[in-house]
Amino acid sequence: MSGPVLEIRGLRVAFPGPRRSLRGARTVVQAVNGVDLDIGARETLALVGESGSGKSTVARCVLGLVRPQEGTITYEGRPLGPIDKRPAELQRAVQMVFQDPGSSLNPRMTVAAIIREAWKVHPAVAPEGDRRQALAQVLADVGLDAGLADRRPSALSGGQRQRVSIARALALQPRLLVCDEAVSALDVSVQSQILRLLVDLQRTHDLSILFITHDLAVVRQIADRVAVMRTGELVESASAEQLFTAPAHPYTQQLLGAAHDLEGTGATSQATRGAGSGE
Ligand SMILES: Nc1ncnc2c1ncn2[C@@H]1O[C@H](COP(=O)(O)OP(=O)(O)O)[C@@H](O)[C@H]1O
Ligand SMILES: [Mg+2]
Which residue ranges does the record assign to the ABC transporter domain (predicted)? Predict the structure, then answer.
């Protein structure tokens, strides 16, 4: 058997915090405090935990946007350093799907231009002559009508924008997708469509996915394994099935209990934002 695709060992990240007093020394926020994680080939690992628990900081380390004080991150055994020091092939292999495509997609560019831009940075992925075909293919892969290629993000729905964001990542033929709260801003029904798309893409494109969310309810639909984070540390890691049926840690039980209560009253955060509107 081959080893994990992504291997995180002893990850520690501290940020300067607020000063205790006007002339006092700065405090330190230990955002990530000794995290170990593995993601296998074609595996979806959900990293869950409340806001501020350090999930995005882990993601930013994997993407090479934050430099950890301690620890190692390897991709197929090769160290994943800061993004500007990564070989092109590793830059391409690890792609990000953003939380809020509304602000991460350039409002002045069309869908086609947004996707083609990825190939300017990594031209070898889609040779010039093949790009029309490659564009049509990637739009089809994410379930976007070819007729939308000339639209700008403002002329798309939230769900369609998230599909563009996924298409942009997919255009680079990644091996690992990092999705940080990628469905958190969407209505429940649209959330579910995007989750289904990610599950399909994971199979058809042999992807590994690091799926980050504060919302345990969305994890059921997508995760093979779940790791629960709290104040910079992992408290539990288990198969999704095991975690949902027999959570071992009191904190996980508490998170699950909270998710159940919200489902029971129909008052999940997304539902209150107005579901059922389609994309
Ligand atoms: N760039 C930064 N500078 C200072 N503190 C930060 C920075 N990024 C994150 N933090 C702090 O680190 C902790 C973890 O944040 P984050 O990783 O964003 O958590 P999550 O994604 O789980 O909500 C929080 O206390 C946050 O305020
Ligand atoms: Mg976050």
Answer: 8-256
